[in-house]
Amino acid sequence: MIIPTKHTNFSESLLGLGSYVLSLLHTPGTVDDLWKQYQNDYINKKYSGKHSFENLLLTIVFLHAIGAVNEKDGVIVKCY
Predict the structure, then answer these.
(1) What's the CA gap between 62 and 40, in Å, rounded?
(2) DSSP state for residue 75 in the 8-state scheme
(3) If exposure means fewest CB atoms within 10 Å of the residue's CB, which of 6, 21, 34, 55 is most exposed?
């Protein structure tokens, strides 16, 4: 689900995951770095939405499509 509905929490949508990913990109990182940080934050209850690795990839593609992030040499960077 890209956007939340009345039955889906914001944190469980790709849009919510996108905002979380953007908050992690204060320093550029690889997809593996983002996934490890998400797993750590989910386990430690810092992020409540349960997502798969596929959802993370879809979110990065979505963020790239709207011009929020770019990829350079395998590193994801936030566009300002």
Answers:
(1) 23
(2) E
(3) 6
Amino acid at 15: L
Q: Between vectors from CA 22 to CA 42 and to CA 28, what angle results, nearest 5°?
A: 100
How much is the pTM?
0.88
Residues 6+ apart with CB under 8 A from 28: 75, 76, 77, 78
Structural domains of the chain sorted by starting position, each given as residue range(s) with its CATH number in brackets: 14-78 (1.10.10)
User: Which residue(s) pair with 70 in the sheet?
Assistant: 77
pLDDT in tens, the chain (80 residues): 555 567 678 888 899 999 999 999 999 999 999 999 999 999 999 999 999 999 999 999 999 999 999 999 999 999 97
Q: Please tell me the distance from the alpha carbon of residue 66 to that of residue 2, in angstroms, as a whole number.
A: 13
3-state secondary structure (DSSP) of residue 49: coil
